[in-house]
């Protein structure tokens, strides 16, 4: 099996951790029936520098022709003050839309050696295991009109969804819940928003096709509380774009570091974009000390969700877990054990694969 | 000085804790130069029962003629499944709009005896003191169109603000910061929303009038993380309606209970509506064991923000603090000391005034 992977290293530590990802994939191809070919393309700040746009057409084309896509990170102080349309994160928004990556999966997993680093008390954190399914190409992020009016005296953004858009993300939510503990929490603001009332209706409709899944509705404000007071009460969460943005970042503080969290953005084919949830960490870029774990776990998510290789994904996840359990970690992680640099940490994980 | 206070006890434990509020006000009038006259009106579920609407016109009129308004709580299972326009919380939304209560103040204060009850580790919680200023009558809550289209195949809500609406809440934000530690965090999603870009521009404009205040901008997703990882890094936060809804509820978990948190909703005159942030707790309604502290602290906020009696407000706040410090509390609070019922707890606070 030959798979074409587009690499979008991006900015800051992106290129360094992308090297770790490639080494892990090459290791996978030694024990599984797969070979990877790589094509590297620009996105974000580096694309602004090289092509005057955060998302060159050539990058979009390369991604469309790929089996899957890995992204490092985008952004940095160098591009903080340029016009909005060229800001590195416009590359992210653009590629989500161009490839129709409507389903964002954000697993929150807790690693034992890091529990004590959580701002939450350990008994609330230990054993938490949440999957947030966020709609990624609709809602306030892309609805129109989004404009100034009356000589700049009024401004509007539009929260817009079609029935189809809500339905398809709801199916991802239910399917994800089926693969987990069969409990789905649909988050909305149905006491205020018409879009949320439609969201809730469709959740009920779709739930008829997944009779085994227990569906509950939760208001977004209540969800923001409960994620912190009772993180273990959640299993799978499905929600719209902006609520998902806020809640998934909020939930990312549970495990005590964002350096071990990966994410997937999928379309309705098997194409997906996989990336760490952390940023480009410009302060440590080029020093060779960046934590490669989120990036390596992004490879695992790619194997599972895009390339139908769940066994290979598991090998990676288990190796990361073992490395942490044995105390190996990069300097950003507040835990006991041995501090390694990016290459050494990657070596360790590969050694355990 | 004679002040007309409208009491809106509402549903569940609302009436019980409102009695505590009245007793505290009567005590205030003994030591300060003020007399209170009370008028009780219906809102929420009880208004639906009595008048077939959660916000009768007579209630609006009474509130418009008042010097200030106290609200207990609205809602309960009895009214959970009626049509949207009659749901008790529509009473809340309606009165905010009818009285132009555009500025919602949500102080997050930590009481020592409750620190250990927080889901967060004590070192992060102790000493936290945050004021969230939430815009309350604009944005997605009231923007139009908000409707189904294309035979119900599309739905839109509208996030709308005028320059004036943003300006006036920004002034409240800066003025609040001036009365505190002179640091203001403006929360938006300027990397995605046009309304947030205007929000940020206006924040910068208005900041010129408050040179002593240090203004910082924070994206709402980052704010949702930082409220939990570094609550003490915040002083005053100003944000739009929906972000404020989510973040203020999230922040309310910091003190270890929502039973000690009050809120104010103000218009551009001195009229305000003051209420606990907790709900109507139907499960314990009528048992005489409800915690009156949030309601009593709502009276303190009223004295400070609506009736220009900051000294009287302080007397109440100090008495609540002393009662808790000495271990007196209702059964909902997870702390050492002596458990009292609603009337006894109110007695204790009055005794210390
Ligand atoms: C960079 C930004 C536009 C983006 C978003 O809001 O979606 C980011 O916060 C994310 O969650 O991937
Ligand atoms: C009841 C609901 C409409 C309301 C809101 O969202 O504003 C509540 O959550 C609040 O924060 O006061």
From TrEMBL, chains A, B:
At what residues does the UniProt record annotate the site feature described as Important for catalysis? 141, 189
| Keyword entries, A-Z | Amino-acid biosynthesis, Branched-chain amino acid biosynthesis, Cytoplasm, Leucine biosynthesis, Magnesium, Manganese, Metal-binding, NAD, Oxidoreductase
Q: What's a Gene Ontology MF term here?
A: NAD binding
What residues bind NAD(+), as annotated?
Answer: 76-89, 279-291
- The domain of life is Bacteria
Query: What is the recorded name of this protein?
Result: 3-isopropylmalate dehydrogenase
Q: In which pathway does it act?
A: Amino-acid biosynthesis; L-leucine biosynthesis; L-leucine from 3-methyl-2-oxobutanoate: step 3/4
Q: Which residues bind Mg(2+)?
A: 221, 245, 249
- What are the names of the required cofactors? Mg(2+); Mn(2+)
One BP term from GO: L-leucine biosynthetic process
Subunit organization? Homodimer.
What residues does substrate bind to?
Answer: 96, 106, 134, 221
Isopropylmalate dehydrogenase-like domain boundaries? 4-349
Q: What is its EC number?
A: 1.1.1.85
Which family is it part of?
A: Belongs to the isocitrate and isopropylmalate dehydrogenases family. LeuB type 1 subfamily.
Per the annotation, which location comes first and is thus the protein's main one?
Answer: cytoplasm
* Role: Catalyzes the oxidation of 3-carboxy-2-hydroxy-4-methylpentanoate (3-isopropylmalate) to 3-carboxy-4-methyl-2-oxopentanoate. The product decarboxylates to 4-methyl-2 oxopentanoate.
Class of the enzyme per the UniProt entry, highest EC level: oxidoreductase
Traced from the root, the source organism's taxonomic lineage reads: Bacteria, Bacillati, Bacillota, Bacilli, Bacillales
**What is the scientific name of the source organism?**
Phocicoccus schoeneichii
What does the record give as the reaction this protein catalyses? (2R,3S)-3-isopropylmalate + NAD(+) = 4-methyl-2-oxopentanoate + CO2 + NADH
What does the note under cofactor report?
Binds 1 Mg(2+) or Mn(2+) ion per subunit.
Compartments, record wording: Cytoplasm
